């Protein structure tokens, strides 16, 4: 079997065992493989009430926090219902947790999306309205306020004897549902010493990024500190202009030889650097078929005997001789490996066990991750 030098990535899906291969490794922009240190989003969370539900909200007798939240809200609006709280039986309200991500450089007045999730025994949040809900960060400060109509892509229907539900009706989103009240200050102009963080740590990729930056800028401003971090010394330069210039530079990223196996779905993903040593593979199936064919024994006419069922079992054992012994040469590429498995008629799930066995034999020169 000839060897092919193909810098590609192939995926073996459950439905078929066909390689999906691309062309040679291509250059990518630096902005697509790194993050600038300090430029990140912040998680926000809040507790609120959704009203206007069609009898699908919390049962106030079960969800005491919903009852107390409703009473407190009405009191703030000038309505005192504490004396008659036992009569509150509405199911049109639900207590929810509201979450959002505050993106970097979001200024006051900007709008962000929020996610609303039920915390009580509400069955459907569709059609409800979220009341004003402050969203706080981990330090307890309020950074945004959410309110708006809840939209869910789920639905549920039920009858007397059956019901159907699609997606999750107790979780919904509000597009542009929160207004940013406070921004997280990030001033890149005052930080001449920056760090670029590789999303996939690799020393080779980091070195290529640093060399590309230094060659383009004409001076050694970039230095690799570790497999993830590249430091930039931009003293005396316009930080924003230089970062924008660096982001559009092209590099060829390097990746670790890795095989990722998802046993639940039967999916195998292999990188283009996967190699195996010389190995012989034999794969066959043993089939055991057990058939029950009971025989009914009846007595002669006017006899004193009784009808009896005599068990009869047929057991058949067969082997699939169609799968032969295959030999892969030393150092085959990914295409060689996949072609060899296809020649043996191996399915994805059998391929998983074969790869695990090759790894156990020390012939798979790659890191194998089984999920």
TrEMBL record:
<dbReference type="GO" id="GO:0005198">
    <property type="term" value="F:structural molecule activity"/>
</dbReference>
<comment type="subunit">
    <text>The basal body constitutes a major portion of the flagellar organelle and consists of four rings (L,P,S, and M) mounted on a central rod.</text>
</comment>
<comment type="similarity">
    <text>Belongs to the FlgI family.</text>
</comment>
<dbReference type="GO" id="GO:0030288">
    <property type="term" value="C:outer membrane-bounded periplasmic space"/>
</dbReference>
<dbReference type="GO" id="GO:0071973">
    <property type="term" value="P:bacterial-type flagellum-dependent cell motility"/>
</dbReference>
<dbReference type="Pfam" id="PF02119">
    <property type="entry name" value="FlgI"/>
</dbReference>
<keyword id="KW-0969">Cilium</keyword>
<feature type="signal peptide">
    <location>
        <begin position="1"/>
        <end position="25"/>
    </location>
</feature>
<keyword id="KW-0975">Bacterial flagellum</keyword>
<dbReference type="GO" id="GO:0009428">
    <property type="term" value="C:bacterial-type flagellum basal body, distal rod, P ring"/>
</dbReference>
<keyword id="KW-0966">Cell projection</keyword>
<keyword id="KW-0732">Signal</keyword>
<keyword id="KW-0574">Periplasm</keyword>
<comment type="function">
    <text>Assembles around the rod to form the L-ring and probably protects the motor/basal body from shearing forces during rotation.</text>
</comment>
<protein>
    <recommendedName>
        <fullName>Flagellar P-ring protein</fullName>
    </recommendedName>
</protein>
<dbReference type="InterPro" id="IPR001782">
    <property type="entry name" value="Flag_FlgI"/>
</dbReference>
<keyword id="KW-0282">Flagellum</keyword>
């Amino acid at each position: 079997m000839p060897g092919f030098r193909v810098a590609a990535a192939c995926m073996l899906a459950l439905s078929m065992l066909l390689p999906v291969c691309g062309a040679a490794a291509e250059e990518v922009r630096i902005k697509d493989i790194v993050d600038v240190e300090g430029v990140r989003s912040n998680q926000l969370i809040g507790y609120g009430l959704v009203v206007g539900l069609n009898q699908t909200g919390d049962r106030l007798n079960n969800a005491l926090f919903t009852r107390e939240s409703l009473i407190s809200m009405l009191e703030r609006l000038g309505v005192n219902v504490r004396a008659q709280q036992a009569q509150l039986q509405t199911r049109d309200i639900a207590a929810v947790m509201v979450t959002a991500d505050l993106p970097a450089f979001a200024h006051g007045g900007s709008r962000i999306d929020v996610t609303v999730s039920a915390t009580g025994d509400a069955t459907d949040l569709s059609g409800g309205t979220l009341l004003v809900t402050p969203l706080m960060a981990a330090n307890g400060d309020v950074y945004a306020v959410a309110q708006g109509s809840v939209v869910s892509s789920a639905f549920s229907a039920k009858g007397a004897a059956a019901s159907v539900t699609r997606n999750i009706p107790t979780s919904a989103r509000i597009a542009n549902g929160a207004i940013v009240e406070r921004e997280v200050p990030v001033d890149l102009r005052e930080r001449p010493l920056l760090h670029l963080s590789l999303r996939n740590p690799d020393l080779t990729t980091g070195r290529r990024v640093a060399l590309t930056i230094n060659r383009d800028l004409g001076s050694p401003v970039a230095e690799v500190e570790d497999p993830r971090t590249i430091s930039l010394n931009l003293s005396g330069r316009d930080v924003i202009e230089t970062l924008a210039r660096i982001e559009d530079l092209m590099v060829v990223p390097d990746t670790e030889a890795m095989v990722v196996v998802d046993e639940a779905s039967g999916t195998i993903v292999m990188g283009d650097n996967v190699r195996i040593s010389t190995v012989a593979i034999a794969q066959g199936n043993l089939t055991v078929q057990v058939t029950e064919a009971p025989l009914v024994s009846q007595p002669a006419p006017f006899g004193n005997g009784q009808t009896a069922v005599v068990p009869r079992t047929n057991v058949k054992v067969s082997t699939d001789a169609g799968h032969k012994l295959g030999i892969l040469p030393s150092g085959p590429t990914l295409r060689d490996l996949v072609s060899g498995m296809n020649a043996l008629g191996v399915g994805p799930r059998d391929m998983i066990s074969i790869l695990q066995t090759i790894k156990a034999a020390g012939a798979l020169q790659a890191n194998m991750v089984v999920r």
